[in-house]
């Protein structure tokens, strides 16, 4: 069985390497946002252009949603910075993020949202956390050019993270499919270790 580092070991080992760098080339802690770091009131609006019926999905419901050909999706609530700021923070995972950030271990964001710039503003203006924009992946943002399911797109984001030189990765996400597909990258990239952790939004909300 592969040895799995504790979070403390992960932080301490990375902290003393490559002094003078703002973060390190091998280790990275990567976080989903919705239902992992924050629970907001933003929802996806779905309208059926054949029937005219509309309904809304939470991010958790969207993970299981299968789009019908007649459905049109509206993600505009996820572009609203004020809705994001009004969300409830999940203290347990936010603390892990802040510990990595303060210890100068690289921190990344891989989220199903579609507005990279808004996420950067929320992190910097609301949380006081300045993450390198190259490590923020809003996988539905057209700037990335990703295709496929959310899990497929998140896997593509991690391909880019690995290409940057990160080989010791912790990934926190509330969705099993996302975690499973990202974890599969270990087989495709010898020497890469991914600790995939399923986040529980009920664990501690501040």
The ordered string of helix (H) and strand (E) elements is: HEEEEHEHEHEHEHEHHE
At the third CATH level, what is the topology name of the largest domain?
Answer: Rossmann fold
Radius of gyration: 17 Å
> Which consecutive residue ranges, at least 5 long each, have pLDDT under 50?
11-22
Question: Can you characterise this structure?
Answer:
- Helix 6 packs parallel to helix 7 (176-183).
- By secondary structure, the chain is of the alpha/beta class.
- The chain folds into two domains: 7-39 and 88-198, Rossmann fold; 44-81.
- The N and C termini lie far apart (36 Å).
- Helices cover 33% and strands 21% of the residues.
Summarize the structure.
By secondary structure, the protein is an alpha/beta fold.
Write the layout of secondary structure elements.
Layout lengths: L6 H9 L11 E5 L6 E2 L4 E5 L5 E4 L1 H4 L8 E4 L6 H5 L2 E2 L1 H12 L3 E6 L4 H11 L9 E3 L11 H14 L4 E6 L2 H8 L1 H4 L4 E6 L8
Helix pairs in contact: 6-7
Keywords summarizing the entry:
206 residues, alpha/beta, Rossmann fold, 2 domains, five-stranded parallel beta sheet, three-stranded antiparallel beta sheet, 8 helices, 10 strands, globular
């Amino acid at each position: 069985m592969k040895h799995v580092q504790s979070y403390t070991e992960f932080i301490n080992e990375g902290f003393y390497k490559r002094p003078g760098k703002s973060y390190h080339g091998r280790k990275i802690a990567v976080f989903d946002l919705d239902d992992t770091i924050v629970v907001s009131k933003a929802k996806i609006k779905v309208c059926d252009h054949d029937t005219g019926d509309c309904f809304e999905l939470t991010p958790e419901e969207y993970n299981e949603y299968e789009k019908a050909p007649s459905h049109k999706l509206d993600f505009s609530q996820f572009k609203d910075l004020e809705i994001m700021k009004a969300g409830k923070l999940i203290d347990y995972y936010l603390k892990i993020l802040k510990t990595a950030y303060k210890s100068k271990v690289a921190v990344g964001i891989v989220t199903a949202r579609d507005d990279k710039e808004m996420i950067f503003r929320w992190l910097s203006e609301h949380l006081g956390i300045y993450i390198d924009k190259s490590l923020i992946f809003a996988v539905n943002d057209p700037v990335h050019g990703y295709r496929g399911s959310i899990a497929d797109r998140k896997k593509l984001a991690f391909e880019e993270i690995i290409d940057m030189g990160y080989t010791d990765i912790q990934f926190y996400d509330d969705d099993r499919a996302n975690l499973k597909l990202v974890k599969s990258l270990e087989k495709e990239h010898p020497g890469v270790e991914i600790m995939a952790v399923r986040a529980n939004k009920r664990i501690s909300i501040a």
